Amino acid sequence: MPKMSSLGPVVGVVLGWSFVMGSVTSVAGQPASPETGTAAATACTVEPRSIDELLPIWFGPEGTPPPAATEMATAASEADLPQGSPADDATVAAINATVHEFFACLDAGQTLSALALASDDVIRIFGPNLSNPDEDTPEEVRAILEAQLAVTPAPGEATAEPTVVSDARDARILDDGRAGALFESEGDVVFIIFEKSGDRWLIDEFVDVVEQGAPAGATPVS
Fold first, then answer.
1. Can you give the pLDDT at residue 116?
2. CB 140 within 8 A of CB 9
3. From CA 38, how far away is CA 87, in angstroms rounded?
4. For the chain, how big is the Rg over CA atoms in Å?
5. Contact (Cβ atoms closer than 8 angstroms) between residue 22 and residue 4
6. What pLDDT is stored for residue 64 in this prediction?
7. What integer pLDDT is reported at residue 107 of this predicted model?
8. Can you spell out the DSSP letters for 120-188?
């Protein structure tokens, strides 16, 4: 059965959030302390990502199992993050809207809608878990996703307590044209990178910010 990868320090915990295909884990549903985050009064209204679009991202044209997911990057400190020019107010508002709706969708159990707010690269990371390769076929994944859609709650209906995440801090436009900003929850910090798609900024990369250096086996941010 496919499992959505952790949003945590790639090999640890990025903001302590993780989710499973079709449901949000209890960790993802735990609210952060009010000192470290802002509860998003945001409903999940984005249209779900099409299953026919997702399957080719996770499986090759022959339906072969996907390769192992790429680990998310880490940075030893905020000073090691990609730099850039300050983002304008409109960009900051747009990336805040993406992040808050992303977690609102997860809280509502609407994983496919959450994936509509992510780039293909992020979707690959959250792809099927190959611990049971005989079951992780396109047909198996399609059946699970279709079953999820059949029981998807109404927009705004949460299946877990709201995830509390701060608004963007130190938002910037990177040299490659993407945007990046720091977000916090429960005292943990993650740098989220966004790419522009039409009139929306999609989540394109997560970089865990660690205090004592990157953990062994992690991929340092370039």
1. 94
2. no
3. 20
4. 17
5. no
6. 67
7. 81
8. HHHHHHT---TTSTTT-SHHHHHHHHHHHHHTPPPTT--SSPPPB-PPPEEEEEETTS-EEEEEEETTE
Question: What pTM was computed for the model?
Answer: 0.74
The token pair that represents 6 in the structure block = 């952790």
Q: For residue 200, what is the enclosing H or E element?
A: strand 200-209
Cα(first)–Cα(last) distance of the chain, in Å? 33
What is the structure's pLDDT at 147? 83
Beta carbons of 104 and 44 less than 8 angstroms apart: yes
Beta strands in 2-43 (DSSP E): 19-20, 23-24
Q: What is the mean pLDDT of each run of 10 residues along the chain (222 residues)?
A: 33 30 30 39 86 87 63 83 96 96 84 91 73 68 82 57 86 97 86 95 90 42 48
Q: Which residues of 170-208 are buried (b: 16+ CB within 10 A; e: fewer)?
A: ebbebeeebbbbbbbbbebbbbbbbbeeeebbbbbbbbb
